[in-house]
Amino acid sequence: MSLLEVKDLNINLGEFHLRDVSLTVEKNNYLTIIGPTGAGKSVLLEVIAGFYPIKSGKITLAGRNITALPPENRGMSIVYQDFMLFPHLNVFDNIAFGLRKKALSRAEIEREVRTISRELRIDQLLHRKPKTLSGGEQQRVAIARALVIRPKMLLMDEPFSALDEKTREKLRSMVKKAVKDYSTTVIHVTHDFEDVFSLANRVAVMKDGRIVQEGTPEEIFCKPTSDFVADFVGTNFFHGRVLESSNITTISIGNIAIYTTEVAEPGAEVTLSVRPEAIILTRELGMYSARNVLPARVVKVKKRGHVLWLTLDVEGLTLRAVITLNAAELLGIKEGVKLYIMFKASSVRVIG
Amino acid sequence: MERLSFRLFTIFIALLFALFLFAAITTLFLIPKPNEIIESIKSEEMAYSLKLSLVTASISTLLVMLFGIPIGYALSRFDFYGKSAVKSILDLPMAFPELVLGLALLLLFGRTTFGGALNSLGINVVFTKLGIIVAQFFTALPYTARVIYTAFESISKRYELVARSLGYGEFETFRKVTLPMARSGLFASTIIAFARSVGTFGSVLILAGGSYMNTEILPVTLYLNISYGNIGMAITSGIMLIIVSFTAILIFERLEGSKNVSVRG
Predict the structure, then answer these.
(1) CA-CA distance, B87 to B146, in Å (whole number)?
(2) Residues in chain B closer than 8 A to A102 (CB atoms)
(3) Which of A61, A56, A84, A83 is CA-nearest to residue A73?
(4) Residue pLDDT, tens place only, B160-200
(5) Is B161–A145 a contact, with Cβ atoms under 8 angstroms apart?
(6) Is the pLDDT of residue B106 over 50?
(7) Of A143, A283, A342, B5, most Cβ neighbours within 10 A?
(8) Mutate to test the interface with A, among B78, B157, B165 (most CBs of A within 10 A)
(9) Domain co-membership, B192 together with B121
(10) Domain check: are B184 and B237 in the same one?
């Protein structure tokens, strides 16, 4: 039995809505929900938490129907992007807030607060007021406050987006450990794929109030089931016809042929996906083990963080590749430059 | 050049008005002779009026807060049938002359079956001290509810959602999270409620009647004595009104300050 089962959920909040959302989460899973702004990710989280009454659908937690249960009886705690620490309470009282609703002695509360504070390294801050803390510290307090009650499920709504990259990195590893130590099941809404790669073992992609794909990170990133998901996760995407399929499959796309190790029916129309990071660039041709080697022209160069995203024109086909700044310098990458791209036949996925 | 003179013009207007207002207030303290004021303060009428003002305004303030907090909270947090109607009706008295509000209350309590029913229960509002409180309550509540509404609006609903998810019910969340967070706004509202109640004149005059040593509160004393040409008493009641309002603000700010939060914070 799954820990959480959401079935055919519908809600309309004017600006946001959910349509026929069904989702299951197993115990101790870490599910991230990704999708464009306005897809309904946060609404889904808040509906699971019980903040909005739903029009139709059913939510089951550990076999119990909780659809009509008020949030205080669901045993799920929530962490928001903007911390939401109670400003009139100090750090200790913020963390102890949920514990005080339980039948615990003063000493037990004290012990629980100390344990989680050590885990998240905020034990030096317990007497401070929230507004005197840095963003990273505030979010650790908020996570401690949510985890300390040992919730059946921890819900996080873009918990790291208000923090800088370095703090984010640090918090990810702390959360990873804490979630494991408290054996918590997590649903984490994010727009940062780094959260997915470093924390999640399940991913759901949302669009227009629907879940369009749900699976392991590998499935989402390497086998997107729709153009939308492929676009959203940034993978390259082609439609072609299978020419032949023996020990290697050849697929014709426009005037080029692409080789894949996946098996396909000759004559069939197929969709292929190649991850941008699987594409290797070279200025001169030589002997390579990669089966797919094609001439390309750099159309657009865009810097994003520590990497460059290139838009390439390959015999009339548009393709995206990602390379490091160093590699770009070495190869003299700029708009208009002609070079060759290559990728292994095993990097080409047939996705439909 | 044109810009500079426009700038000087606006500053000039601001200074001019402030000067006039300040001069008017100072005159209040400078014109009367000190012994006249002392005589007036010692008078039985002034003592009666001051005491009645303080008692009625305090009771009204308490009632206004007891009603204003739920009203402000409901308007800020919940969607319900008739919400926009409630909002518009609450806004009415601000554009409504106080005298007309008094007249409306007089008719409600004096000329309708509702008023008659209250009367038969022994509750007499018209031309009584109870009428003073009713008039003050109806005058001050719309203003106060609006300030309380703003105070609740400034608190993100997510604080309450977090508390709910941590096991607290609706009312507990209100008590443990929303109320403490709204504290400075509620203190400010209390001052506004009190200041409005103490200063209410028109509606009190019509509903409770401005009868000498009976329903005579400070603004009524001022009015009655101006009518008699008794300038000393009139000015003294004016000064009393100002002192009462400022003392209230000081006391509230002291109370609030002792808890380390400023009213305007």
Answers:
(1) 9
(2) 167
(3) A61
(4) 999 999 999 999 999 999 999 999 899 999 999 999 999 99
(5) no
(6) yes
(7) A143
(8) B165
(9) yes
(10) yes
